[in-house]
Amino acid sequence: MAWFSGPSAVTPEMVLLGGDDTLEVVGESYHLDNIWRIVGGRPSSTVRRPIRAVLIPETDNPHDANAVAIVIDGLLVGHLSRADAVAYRPGLLRLYEQHGGRPIALGGVIYGEGDFLGVFLDHDPAEFGLTCKQFHRAVPELRTGLSEAIGTDFDDDSYDLGWLDKLPKDDGSAIPYLRGWLLRDRDVISRHFLFCHLEKSLYRLRDYGPAMLAEFDQACAAHDAEMDLIRDHLIAKFGKVPVLETYRQAAIRHQKAKDWPSARWWAERGLRLYGELAARPEAREDLMKRAAMASAKLGAATGAAGSSTAAPMVEREVSAHAAVAAATTEQAAAPLAPAGWYADPAGRFEFRWWDGATWTPTVARQGQPLYDPL
Which end of the chain is more exposed for a tag (fewer CB within 10 A), N or C? Predict the structure, then answer.
């Protein structure tokens, strides 16, 4: 493609668009040599380099008829994802026509180190003819990872996923159904998939108002409170950690809200859970990229800001922590009770989930699972 021999710097003829929503680039790992050239060599420490990137609608890509290439200083560094290319290409073509064929560019940053460098662009979806709702829906829907489990579960009766047979198809009915099962189902893997379906239903209803997103946040937090135990059971069954879409979707949700500390926390938490046992390396790579994106947005001030807010919260929770700790000590002195819902030893909710070894932050009030950090 002839445009790869383009200029080594941004030219005055380029049309530089603004905006503060992040447009993601994929496939950077295939173009590391080019990215290293742009940042001045393979970095041995973290690099954060502001860039201007040209978006080029390809006409001869054999793999994707809608492909949109991302070029910096005349070098190919990646593409838009297939979903984003479908959504953005029509608007991009209109912009080229409106500006007489002048290259359309976005500002952004290259962030990362060594063999992991991500390209993150800033834009305004409206410039491409997209509404806020269309921009958010360009993000793939939350997946549960249940397909991986079902693929190896035909002959396994160690847990019961019978609740799937009567799961309502509409999200409004599915939400109370799933919450009811979470209150009585004690199987670790079954609870994992119940949470996954609950999160999916809540996220689908996010356009109905902020309450749905708040409930989605609570469901993700309650799910995460049990995830260390869930991870052990998943590894025992499959030998690896299947896709944990909760962490990707939670990171995306906070990314869209520009809550960068939370976006980074969810991405990094997911990375810790995957470790070196991710069944799909691309899932881990996706979270690495999201963590890098959030870090790039936060800059060096994030650590200081996070540490300054932690102490007051701990002080407010001292009495509740003491109550739970005392209950845990008493429980440990006797034979361990089976996992399940018991009266909240902190006295703040009706019930708290005991995982068979310790009290968790998952609580319930009037039949609704909630999250109460210990």
Answer: N
* Residues 352/363, Cβ–Cβ less than 8 Å: yes
Report the alpha-carbon distance of residue 194 to residue 186 in Å, rounded.
Answer: 11
- How far apart are alpha carbons 257 and 247 in whole angstroms? 15
Q: Which amino acid is at 16?
A: L
User: Residue 63 CA to chain centroid, in angstroms?
Assistant: 27
Which residue in the block uniquely carries the two structure tokens 């790039």?
A: 296
Residue 324 pLDDT level (bands cut at 50, 70, 90): very low
Long-range contacts of 166-173 (CB under 8 A, 24+ apart): 167/197, 171/201, 171/202, 171/204, 171/205, 172/205
pLDDT at 202: 92
Whether residue 122 contacts residue 21, with contact meaning beta carbons closer than 8 Å, is answered with yes
Q: Which residues contact 344 (CB under 8 A, 6 or more apart)?
A: 350, 351, 352, 363
Taking alpha carbons only, the member of 294, 316, 257, 292 closest to residue 118 is 292
- Please state whether the predicted TM-score (pTM) of the whole model is above 0.85: no
Query: For residue 121, what are its two tokens?
Result: 């662009």
pLDDT at site 155 = 46
Q: Angle at Cα 212 formed by Cα 302 and Cα 20, nearest 5°? A: 40
Record the tokens describing residue 261, joined without a space: 């500390």
Q: Which residue has the higher pLDDT, 197 or 114?
A: 197
